[in-house]
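Reply to dn_fold:

You asked what the input looked like. This is it:
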Amino acid sequence: MHDVPIGIQASGLRREQDLTGSIDVPADRYWGAGTQRALAAGEATACPMPDSLFRCYGYLRRAAVIIATQAGRLPPWKAAAIVRATADLTEGRLVREFPLGFRQYSDAALAAINVNEVLANRAAQLLGAPPGSREPIEPLLDLAFGPGPDAAFTAALFIAAVLAIEQTLVPPCTALARALARNPEQSRLRAALLRIDEAEGSLHEIAAEPPDATGLAPEDWTLMTAVVAADTGRPFIVAPQPFCGRAALDAPVAAMAAVRGLAIVLLDIAASLNTGAELPQAAALAKLCRCVIEQDRTVVAAASHRGAATDGTARAIIAASLLGSLQRLADGCRTLSRIVARTR
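and this is what came back:
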């Protein structure tokens, strides 16, 4: 296997072909024909999906590759290249390769195609082949083993939400709680964090599909989830109930409600700090918190309408709202900590 830096040193277009036909793809990109076809037909990057979702697809794909290799479905030399590519994805080196708007990614099959094309082309590059050649890595065959598109999207969302809560939100929020010292809002902030921690618990349960849905046996799901847990250092387990569209929405909706609670507390803290001082940062933070509160209303509306259980758009709205809100509030906590430090 070659030690190839990330990036394709090419310009212009390359011609790629899949089962639908052939299409020109930017020569310096890792995505392939299926993604390019959707990009040409859709809404471009007007409303992008948070890249943390796609990074977490890397954990699922790595686990699936390990299982496929152990079962003799994938040669070890191919598996090694794909695993290297999944590391590039989870570590954020391929986040520019997901160019579609979040409503297009409501088609979970399209999200899976985009991920598989990127991983296949990066793995091919590591093996010394030109990206787009579909040799020696074929995305439709060598990356086919694993969860179905809907279950994969949901599992990636759960993983991304857990990591965002624990790695992105909790540290600056905890630092803010310490900075508030004897401020009466400190206890409310800690209580809001506790509610988020409680809501996070259900996000550790990755729901398995019935065996006839994708060919994954129950023991495959157990092994795959164990690999994800080991890679992320988080206690992911197989959910007691099989994958169901409606049930899959419950945990992220509950998490978003807890995030809204935190936004309300931060809004009050910002207001208390802004009293008489007219701090522009506090005013900006208040606007951010109101945006998160509005996002929760959007999530509730998406999850509660008729047909939401099978509506990919509802799932995409929930994913974009939850992951985006976690990042916004983390930024807001850092801003508040700076304001507290200056106003002591």
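The mean pLDDT is 90.
Hope that clears it up.
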